[in-house]
Amino acid sequence: MAESKAKEVRESYVDSIIISADTIVCLDDKILGKPKSEAEAIETLKSLSNRRHQVKTGVCVLYKDQTILHVETTDVYFKKLTDEDILSYVNSGKCMDKAGSYGIQECDFVDHIEGDYTNVVGLPKYVVETMMKDVAL
Asked: Which bin fits 50, alpha (ψ -120 to 50), beta or left (φ > 0)?
């Protein structure tokens, strides 16, 4: 998906460096996308409660004939969530445009992570910096 996004943008910016990313949340080998309804967001958050899941961000850097791809994975451990925690967050509306129905930067559901915090936000900063060093200008 990240590569597809980058190629679409490259059509308008042929001589530019293009960076794109796409993030998914995985639980038990199932991809949890953006919720289609509040009910789906509630079910997703209930399924993540008191469990470990993975956040995977695909990153693509395009420059001229170069394509550099990377997928960064971070393990995220949720606290045990109460129904009140979940309903309060879902009612805030913040969950509806996020894979896995949450944004780590705006909730207190996370007990701890193993990996890159910026990956969970949606753009793994250090990965992008490393990829940019590999671009032959």
From this structure: left
Say what percent of the chain tops pLDDT 90.
93
**22: amino acid identity, one letter:** D
CB 126 within 8 A of CB 52: no
Q: Do 56 and 26 meet the contact criterion of CB atoms below 8 Å apart?
A: yes
What pLDDT score does 137 carry? 76
**Strands 52-63 and 30-32, sheet pairing:** unpaired
Q: What are phi and psi of 104, to 5 degrees?
A: -60, -30
111 is written with which tokens? 């007990």
pTM above 0.70, yes or no: yes
**Is residue 71 a contact partner of residue 128, using CB atoms and an 8 Å limit?**
no
134 among known catalytic residues: no
Query: Which entry of 15, 22, 85, 116 is annotated as an active-site residue?
Result: 22
How far apart are the C-alpha atoms of 117 and 36, rounded to whole Å?
26
Beta carbons of 125 and 118 less than 8 angstroms apart = yes
